[in-house]
């Protein structure tokens, strides 16, 4: 049976709505409604998949048993891991289902050669959750759990491209010494959580397999295009991933209230297209989009729609505009660091 290229898997679950703070919090259930509207706006046909819970084995690949035991102790209660990271009575269950939703998506992508892209509309988000603790709105590291599941099920190399405006310190921590996963982050700096310097490249066997591209405030679509063209796409071409995962935060959008970047929908479409081209060469087209941050609802909607269009259709509009001297220098500096491990740059 031939499946239209304008279809993609969508994994979600009603339990994600039950992760809700007693007062206002920017990481709120309404974000999921915006993401669902983004899928609809993309013009693709959603092939729905039912999320499953991540098992203890799934979670132990990414997280320390002591941290998982602490989450189990807090399950069913209102609590806080830190000043930013809340738990409601169903939050731990939602987090386990969110990690499982990413596995569900990865499993489908690896098993169906005809349908090669999809999105996990899951929350709470994950990329700040380290091996030993949750933080920054995140409880379990969904993308990391999905990547490690893939590595245990026949895949040799996974790339996680994280374009959330905040550095994914948790994902970096989990894969710091692991050469099977190339972790790439574009993020605003300085900004929470304060990690993600260019010189943070991994250690031991993982040295060179963390690629950070910190950018100062005000970076536009043209700056992100430059970073992809000069650094990220060439490195990914050399790494030749067998699965592409996107930690898709949309808080670098110009409307977002928690950061100071200037991305718009065409920038997200450009990045999605760039990753689809990488996936077409080495990953049988397999691209999984995993929802991370993003706190303006309109921005989430248009940004996810554009990302999907880029990934599924290769809809990449021309990106115009000048790149400031400061941003040019930042991209060049990231390229210089990457060249130590990726000499083809």
The CATH class, by name, is Alpha Beta
CATH superfamily: Histone deacetylase domain
Broad structural category: alpha/beta
The appropriate CATH architecture is: 3-Layer(aba) Sandwich
Cα end-to-end separation: 41 Å
Radius of gyration, CA atoms, in whole angstroms: 18 Å
Strand content: 5-15%
The CATH topology: Arginase, Chain A
Query: How many distinct domains?
Result: 1
The helix-strand sequence is EHEHHEEHEHEHEEHEHEHH
Describe the main β-sheet briefly: 8 strands, parallel
Oligomer classification: single chain
Read across the widest sheet, the strand sequence of neighbours is 2-1-5-10-9-6-7-8
Envelope shape: globular
**Low-confidence spans:** none
Number of helices, where a helix is a run of at least 4 consecutive DSSP H or I residues: 10
Average per-residue pLDDT, rounded, comes to 96
Question: What's a concise summary of this model?
Answer:
The chain has helices at residues 30-41, 56-60, 65-74, 91-111, 142-151, 169-174, 221-239, 265-282, 297-313, 325-338; strands spanning 7-12, 45-50, 79-80, 86-87, 117-120, 158-162, 181-188, 210-215, 243-248, 287-291. With 345 residues, the protein is α/β, with parallel strands linked by helices.
Molecular structure report:
The chain has 345 residues and is an alpha/beta fold. It has ten helices and ten strands. The protein has an eight-stranded parallel beta sheet with strand order 2-1-5-10-9-6-7-8, with helices on both faces. A two-stranded antiparallel ribbon has the order 3-4.
């Amino acid at each position: 049976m031939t499946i239209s290229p304008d279809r993609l898997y969508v994994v979600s679950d009603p339990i994600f709505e039950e992760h809700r703070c007693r007062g206002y919090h920017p990481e709120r259930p309404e974000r999921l409604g915006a993401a669902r509207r983004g899928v609809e706006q993309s013009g693709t046909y959603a092939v729905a998949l039912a999320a499953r819970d991540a098992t203890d084995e799934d979670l132990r690949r990414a997280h320390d048993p002591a941290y998982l035991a602490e989450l189990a102790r807090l399950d069913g209660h209102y609590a806080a891991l830190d000043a930013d990271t809340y738990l409601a009575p169903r939050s731990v269950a939602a987090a386990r289902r969110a990690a499982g939703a990413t596995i569900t998506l990865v499993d489908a992508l690896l098993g169906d050669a005809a349908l090669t892209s999809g999105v996990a509309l899951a929350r709470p988000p994950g990329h700040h959750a380290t091996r030993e603790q949750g933080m920054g709105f995140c409880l379990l590291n969904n993308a990391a759990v999905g990547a490690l599941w893939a590595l245990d099920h026949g895949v040799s190399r996974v790339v996680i491209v994280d374009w959330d405006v905040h550095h994914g310190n948790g994902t970096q921590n989990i894969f710091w010494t692991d050469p099977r996963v190339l972790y790439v982050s574009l993020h605003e700096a300085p900004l929470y959580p304060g990690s993600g310097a260019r010189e943070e490249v991994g250690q031991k066997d993982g040295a060179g397999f963390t690629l950070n591209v910190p950018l100062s405030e005000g970076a536009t679509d043209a700056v992100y295009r430059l970073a992809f063209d000069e650094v990220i796409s060439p490195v990914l071409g050399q790494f030749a991933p067998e699965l592409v995962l996107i930690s898709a935060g949309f808080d670098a959008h110009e409307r977002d209230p928690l950061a100071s970047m200037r991305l718009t929908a065409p920038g997200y479409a450009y990045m999605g297209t760039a990753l689809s081209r990488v996936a077409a060469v080495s990953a049988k087209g397999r691209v999984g989009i995993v929802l991370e941050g993003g706190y303006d609802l309109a921005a989430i909607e248009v940004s996810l729609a554009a990302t999907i269009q880029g990934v599924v259709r290769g809809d990449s509009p021309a990106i115009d505009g000048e790149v400031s001297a400061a941003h040019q220098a930042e991209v060049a500096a990231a390229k210089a660091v990457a060249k130590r491990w990726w000499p083809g740059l």
